[in-house]
Specification:
Two copies of one chain form a homodimer. With 294 residues, chain A is of the alpha+beta class. Chain A has eight helices and ten strands. Chain A is globular, with a radius of gyration of 19 Å.
């Protein structure tokens, strides 16, 4: 990028930015449809739950004071006790304190970012919680980041294999190193040092993905979203009918406490959102609906 | 202190250290007795609750791998849904990374610390939660720190006045500047920037208290403990019989979520404990038993 002391040049990759923002919105629509279909099945079967049937996502638009904003979609369902899908397209200028920490922002603090973030906390302790997030960030550089991971209370090897298998296929279609590298990165990232335990059974995590082929990177990001869409709702459907005990529910509430500990103590994304004055409700949408510390 | 390249000199204030450690244990015993008396009243009145009556504190001894340890006392009661009193006496050597952040530790990383930490989460949303902590820390310097604050869901001016009044009296007996300074420090410390709201109704907070008269500082620390002991259990007794609604209980669970957010995102004591490899159960004993994020 040319030197631009006045900050008047456009940020790069304008066309790709527009397509990424559109994609995140499309993926949101497909995820919302998949999750609402699960609630419709439960309603059809007359499952017990709270509120009107079948439960639907409620949308809430939010503006970011510094520029841009997002749409938070939240479902409080019978099967999916709390599911949140947040899409955002924001832009602005990083504070001096942040510039040194952000690639390509040292000389020109302007940024643009778009992304989707999905967190699902099912009511049943036998249905794994899950998270998926992908984003595009543009400063004087541009790159992609994201990941997907699953947090069962009682891991089932078959479910883990399905979830990992879908992400592995997305990775291997893009680059032979992606799967081993991003899987290991996920295990390292979603780790609770103070407990000496992982948050869940992992998946993938990646950041600063900026290969010479931006189209290939964007295709990979889309494939990660589709892999999550194809794998996770199917796992929910397979387990949602299994009866659970009060002891299993209690174990879930305690496991969720570890989830909160990770997100608030260690998650860099949460801290970044909080420290940059992000919408607190959107940043903390990931927190489970009910939690216990014994 | 004399230069001591071999690290063989004793840390200062050995006699005061022993008395401080003894005091924290005594205060723990008096707090435990006051809280168990509350549970005995509830059991005598046949209040509804969980578990055997009256509920008693359970003690758990823990060792710190680097040196020393503590005793965690936890009550899961009918009135006091979760009350924890932790005393610890630890010593060791600060890591290089910590030395620069700790007064008097740059040249000699050895430290000694003793303290008491109390957190109470009552079952009733009409009874305020409360916290009190005092500690003595010794490097090549020595100082006291601590504080006490109250977190009602529905603040009652009379209770706040009783709580603040007791702490104010302890402050004013020590130094005319303590109350205005430590009250303001508390308001500043227990603040959730991402929510733009305080954790509770405040109290006092102080750190690095090291006046020329260490005896006076220690007397103040004891007075803070006694003030908490005299004020808070009396507030619990006054409110514990009031009937509450499901809406009030729900508001309590959500207010507790803010408490968790503060402790995990912002509380320097929690972060210090976690980062120095403190006992996770003891450090996180402060977290409420049941929490909700709507």
């Amino acid at each position: 990028m040319l030197p631009d002391p006045a900050g008047t040049l456009p940020l790069p990759e304008e066309a790709l930015r527009a397509r990424a923002a559109t994609w995140f919105g499309e993926l949101r629509d497909r995820l919302v449809a998949a999750f609402e279909a699960i609630e419709a099945i439960a309603a059809g079967e007359g499952s017990a739950g709270e509120g009107p049937f079948p439960a639907r996502f409620q949308r809430e638009v939010w503006d970011r004071p510094g520029g841009g904003g997002g749409v938070m979609s939240i479902l409080r369902g019978s099967v999916l006790e709390k599911a949140g899908v947040n899409v955002s397209v924001v832009d602005g200028v990083f504070s001096e304190a942040f510039r040194a920490r952000i690639p390509g922002a040292a000389a020109d603090g302007r940024f643009w970012a778009a992304g989707i973030s999905v967190v699902v906390h099912p009511r049943s302790p036998l249905v794994p919680a899950a998270h998926m997030n992908t984003r595009m960030i543009v400063t004087s550089h541009h790159w992609f980041g994201g990941g997907a991971d699953m947090t069962p209370v009682f891991p089932v090897a078959e479910d883990t294999a399905v979830f990992h298998g879908a992400l592995r296929a997305a990775c291997e279609a893009a680059h032979p190193e992606h799967w081993p590298r991003f899987k290991a990165w996920c295990d390292e990232y979603f780790w609770l040092p103070h407990r000496g335990e992982p948050r869940g059974v992992g998946g993938i995590f990646f950041d600063e993905l900026a290969s010479p082929d931006a189209e290939a990177d964007f295709r990979f990001v889309r494939d990660v979203g589709v892999a999550f869409l194809e794998a996770y709702p199917a796992i929910v459907r397979r387990r949602m009918g299994d009866p659970w005990t009060a002891e299993q529910k209690r174990a879930q509430l305690i496991k969720r406490g570890r989830y909160v500990e990770f997100n608030l103590l260690w998650d860099r994304g949460t801290r970044f959102g909080i420290e940059t004055g992000g919408n607190a409700e959107a940043v903390l949408m990931s927190l489970p609906p009910e939690v216990a510390w014994p």
